[in-house]
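[Automated response] Your request has been received and processed.

Submitted sequence:
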Amino acid sequence: MGASERLVSFRKLVTLAREKLALDIGVVLWDGSTVPVDLKPDALAVAFADEGAVAALVRSPKIQTLPNL
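Generated structure:
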């Protein structure tokens, strides 16, 4: 799977999670795109600087992983 395919897959996952969990928190992805697409600049959002952060969370899904990133 290439980098662009991983980005598309993660965007779909985040979109689904926001819908299912009814979260009003946006996500800024490492390419600068946002979920939702129309995320306001002043909205509360979690930012992923690179896809390595996602990989780290998948490898070690613990609350302690977040501050390390």
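Summary generated for your ticket: The mean pLDDT is 89. The first helix runs from residue 3 to 21.
If you did not submit this request, please reply to this message.
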